[in-house]
Amino acid sequence: xxxxxxxxxxxxxxxxxxxxxxxxxxxxxxxxxxxxxxxxxxxxxxxxxxxxxxxxxxxxxxxxxxxxxxxxxxxxxxxxxxxxxxxxxxxxxxxxxxxxxxxxxxxxxxxxxxxxxxxxxxxxxxxxxxxxxxxxxxxxxxxxxxxxxxxxxxxxxxxxxxxxxxxxxxxxxxxxxxxxxxxxxxxxxxxxxxxxxxxxxxxxxxxxxxxxxxxxxxxxxxxxxxxxxxxxxxxxxxxxxxxxxxxxxxxxxxxxxxxxxxxxxxxxxxxxxxxxxxxxxxxxxxxx
Length: 288
Description:
Layout: E1 2-10, H1 16-24, E2 42-48, E3 51-57, H2 67-82, E4 85-91, H3 96-105, E5 112-117, H4 124-135, E6 140-145, H5 154-164, H6 182-197, H7 201-204, E7 207-215, E8 220-228, H8 231-238, H9 243-260, E9 264-272, H10 280-285
Parallel strand pairs: 1-3, 1-4, 4-5, 5-6, 8-9
Antiparallel strand pairs: 2-3, 7-8
């Protein structure tokens, strides 16, 4: 039996969340074309008869500008400390020197597999050049190429990773696929809709907090608050005569029902909390 923590690091939008979801066969991490979508460390527990691998999606590595960013980078630091193997993911079409500088700065003490992602969007020459570059880096033990969005051959992908893991007992003994509560995933699915429905500024000024989660006989009743920083942002999320929050609620409810496998009654409110991203009390209240 092999077991261990395999933690995913990389720049924003390199495909960390898409890779985690592909490996787990479940949507654990929300996806958006906008950068800095992932704010928490999200663990996915992959159980098979001869191994247990705990994958972690981590926030994209950035220079912190707010206390929220600092919390995000603390999640990265925590993942560095307990990693048995590091997956260093890069976008094949981005400058490898930028990712290389980030990976060097991590000062890894564990084996690292460089994952060259989005190869469906590049020619053979570009792929070859990136692979050869990372093969020369001192922190790199193996380079693999994938398109996480198109799907991966999980068995082949896991071979080199399992080779680096030690034999040991499982860290988790139940059948859960994550150590995070259901309420967390519900709040993330709502936040994902904020990212998809609103323009650049709104998603980054927004947090979601589930205030009620009750399982009833025929459905699950969920109440959630969408936190913004300004009254004008509240107006944008509500929309004319409540049109946008109604659309947001409808789309989020469908995804939550798919995730839970149950009917859902979803009620959404919008609250204004000025400068919540720099307020330690608010950050703690919202789960950061």
